[in-house]
Amino acid sequence: MAFDKTKDYGKEAEMLKVLGHPIRLKIVAGLCTQECNVKHIWECLGLPQATVSQHLALLKNKGIIEGTRDGVEVRYAVVSPFVRRLIEILHQEP
User: What's the pTM?
Assistant: First the structure.
């Protein structure tokens, strides 16, 4: 196995740090299957709206998800192909 000295894995490492939290990982896994608004996410997870909003802000800040305004609500979806592949791998049977 050869090591690539020129590749900087900084962005990937930051994404992995953010995904290291179980709640954020659940949110991302759910958003890989369907777009959702904040209310739907916190109802599904049984968490306070403020908690979900904080996690969504962090995921959005790292470029993992994006929000699309639909009238008065914002619908979130995973936009990172890297993260989508990670979730697919996590869902595979060992």
Answer: 0.88
